[in-house]
Amino acid sequence: MSEVQPTSPNVALLGRPGGRAMLDTPALVVDRAALDRNIAAMAAHARAAGIALRPHIKTHKSVAIARRQLAAGALGVSCVTLGEAEIMVRAGIPGVHLTSPPVTAAKLARLVALARAPHRGLSVVIDHADTVAALSAALLGASAPLAVLIDVDAGQGRTGCTIEAAPALVRAVQDAHGLRLAGIQAYAGHLQHVAIRAERRERSLRLAERLRGLLRQLAAMDLPVPIVTGGGTGTFDLDPEARVFTELQVGSYVFMDVEYLQALADGRNAPPFETALFVATAVIGVNQPAYLVTDAGLKCFATEGPRPEPARGAPSGSRYAFFGDEHGKLFVPTDAARPALGAVIECVTPHCDPTVNLHDFYHVVDGDTLVEIWPVDARGKR
Amino acid sequence: MSEVQPTSPNVALLGRPGGRAMLDTPALVVDRAALDRNIAAMAAHARAAGIALRPHIKTHKSVAIARRQLAAGALGVSCVTLGEAEIMVRAGIPGVHLTSPPVTAAKLARLVALARAPHRGLSVVIDHADTVAALSAALLGASAPLAVLIDVDAGQGRTGCTIEAAPALVRAVQDAHGLRLAGIQAYAGHLQHVAIRAERRERSLRLAERLRGLLRQLAAMDLPVPIVTGGGTGTFDLDPEARVFTELQVGSYVFMDVEYLQALADGRNAPPFETALFVATAVIGVNQPAYLVTDAGLKCFATEGPRPEPARGAPSGSRYAFFGDEHGKLFVPTDAARPALGAVIECVTPHCDPTVNLHDFYHVVDGDTLVEIWPVDARGKR
Fold it and tell me: How big is chain B by its Cα radius of gyration, in Å?
């Protein structure tokens, strides 16, 4: 799958002073210093807590950002789609872990091809006995076994088997040809955005208690599970306290979107992460008295969560509203100066993961300057 | 900007009987016969009504589909982003019209480059005097003038000048160096989904009356506007009746999504278009008693409108709900047979335009067979 990346129309701005405000819009913008501070803060937290990091790249889908996370000490990356895992493995990223079970014949064939190609510690979750059997059969004759974790439903009800069903599945993997039992996964997606920290903590610790029971049961059955993986940006400081996870799959901390900024805005426990991701949009319509019209709409921002929040270039107190596929409304306070036709405004992204997936490039800025352009390598990869 | 398209993982299924149900999911699926019937029905309607078609390719972003529309008699295509127009012009598509005003220095530079390259009748809208001046200055020394239409706000309040301000802008284009006055545009986006046909008709005809007044005024000022463009799938049969438009910018009729199927579901006046677009998703989780888990979430479907509707492969009466970035919930009636782990289900797309923009390929089917794979050429192009 050789792919030539298309070229961003902003290449000519690289290194040019003030280039950030001249970006051809709409454009995804990442503040490199803020990104690196977020990566360093999570790495320091994990080191202090004695827990490993396998950050989730579903958020950024970028080899360049994965490399920065690895350089800060991460032992690998987590991927939700097989297409993401293929991109990461082919880029030489170590410790690639697939967090959603591959099930169809098409996916199992691709997974087996990936497992037979050079990789540096690929692992995958399974949550059903039929998949254990199918993957084992598909790996017939493989030179090395594939690392498998059993996906346990942490209460979200999405993927994962019940905690009660887990021991039998763990046993099935242990006994299956071509598979190597590597651990269990329990991702509490439903707890990440619980707005009250005390409730988030209480529910996280209760889940940990149930997982601890499962681990005791597996130990008694002589089924070693070296890895216990889970956790997210919403519970990054609660999961280590539970002392059941060996590693965290945190993702959104690299960017911090409106959704997480709202959910984690608990005064005394504000997370040590800052906004690093924006979408730059230009004012293209000034004919309406009540608002300005911008060139970023619902093909540029995730629409299922909160709204984008105007930041750099917009008067304080401005609000953004969707206005169709390719346009937005920018409401500016009546006592503020109206941005001019053509002015570039940056917005904090509403939900970072699906916003990133709408863009081909990160325009990497250092202050006012465009310093690098990184492809969104795994955009749209399933 | 030379671009090598990545390869769909479904290439191996081309021509294989039953391949449609074996697609590597999630996958965008287009029913070629239904697509062609929709294109033919709109072409026949336009011919009978004596109105031209310049279909909007923001819906499909595909050169292959644009060619089918041209083969059925369309005189060109409409594009909302300059990136779409670049793709269409470079593919040799004639009559490319840009329906949103280019404003920033970056966009004007790209537009001028496109206008100086070989094209077969490029046109663009403007809605502000500053842009008339800027584009005229940027085109200094160009060998041929660029066709410009004045964008008039049809009541949606998005792009476009007021009807009252239009004559002065039309005059400015007429007088500007490097520009050729080609017409006016009035797109009534706000009327397309008005659910009651009688109201849609009444408001469309009222708008037409106002535009007719503008055209009389321009004629009296000796400002010829040969083209009057606008209209959409929601008013395709009302706009010709108004006898003010010379051409229609209809887009969604090629696919018919849940949004339009709901809006136009007026018994006696059901439109002659049928669903031609689906997203194929696989059942990847069967551990929950209340629902199945699928592999298509909010990175595969537009989320700002109605929900996807389960169709082929799903028991009648099934419902779909979003379940995060990469997963969906499929609720199946209790008395129906549950689809098996790995089964492929197709869903009607909620809002077709932003759904298509999330995919790299159309998997083109004829009955049960995958017969072609078309790239979504202008996906993500701004």
Answer: 22
